[in-house]
Amino acid sequence: AADLSSGYACLQELEPALDAPGLLQRVALPLVHALRRFECEGLSPFAAAYARRDLLQGRRVTTTLDGAPEGLAEGVDAQGALRLRHDGGVARVTSGEVSVRPSAAVGA
Questions:
Q1: What is the pLDDT along the chain (108 residues), one digit of tens a residue?
Q2: Strand order in the sheet with 82-86
Q3: d(CA 3, CA 96)
Q4: Which of 3, 26, 93, 102 could in theory staple to 82 by disulfide, Cβ–Cβ 3.0 to 4.6 A?
Q5: What is the DSSP letter of 23?
Q6: pTM of the model
Q7: What is the distance between the alpha carbons of residues 8 and 31, in angstroms, rounded to a whole number?
Q8: How many Cβ atoms from other residues are within 10 Å of residue 71's Cβ?
Q9: C-alpha span between 73 and 12 (Å, rounded)
């Protein structure tokens, strides 16, 4: 079974009567606006909201990054790369290059 200790979202708990078309109607326009804003302004306008929800912030993690396989997650930089503090300093970890997992999940 998946570890759901970090919480999860379940639409039925929030809006039991809402179906897929109704949900799409509610989220489509705000999503389009957010995507257009991101296209024009980048990550910056979203950084604070992301940081509040960052489950890795301050946690030890293991990665597949050569030279920095584990360290302390320090949020994301302006380009969206994970900042990983390790013995050699701070590395930038991008999702296309590595797998990042909380250390507690490794070998579990």
A1: 455 565 667 777 778 888 889 889 989 999 999 999 999 999 999 999 999 999 889 988 888 887 778 889 999 998 889 999 999 899 998 864 555 655 554 444
A2: 89-93, 82-86, 70-76, 60-62, 101-102
A3: 24
A4: 93
A5: H
A6: 0.65
A7: 20
A8: 23
A9: 33
